[in-house]
Design brief:
This protein has one domain: Beta Polymerase, domain 2. It has two helices and six strands. The strands form two sheets. A four-stranded mixed beta sheet has the order 1-4-3-2, covered by helices on one side. This is NADH-quinone oxidoreductase subunit C. One of its GO terms (molecular function) is NADH dehydrogenase (ubiquinone) activity.
Length: about 130
Amino acid sequence: MIENLVEATSDQLLAEASSCKYQNYRYVTSTCVDNGDDTIDVYYHFDKDYQMKNIKITVKKGEEIPSISKIYFSAILVENEMKELFGLNITDIAIDYGGHMLLSDEELSSPMLRQQITIEQRGGKQE
């Protein structure tokens, strides 16, 4: 259980991040969890006087998420990382590396997503 958690929609994300900025919270980082279905939980972590505030949005894979980098510029690194490693469709990042901040063209796209492995890919063996 995460304390001081606000659950929001992707449409509410910018308003929630703006509220944190207005209340003098600093942006700490963001984290992702692939739920194993067609959704990903994205957590935004903020701090003020050693008190954490967390915003959680749950999005469908492929759904657009607005960048908070226009509010917290430091989010550009984490948002580019989440975009590459989890395949999140984050729009309007202040500096968007286009999927090549960490990964090259030869590497597996979205390597942090749970990969669906078919029976054929296992060599026809069921586990």
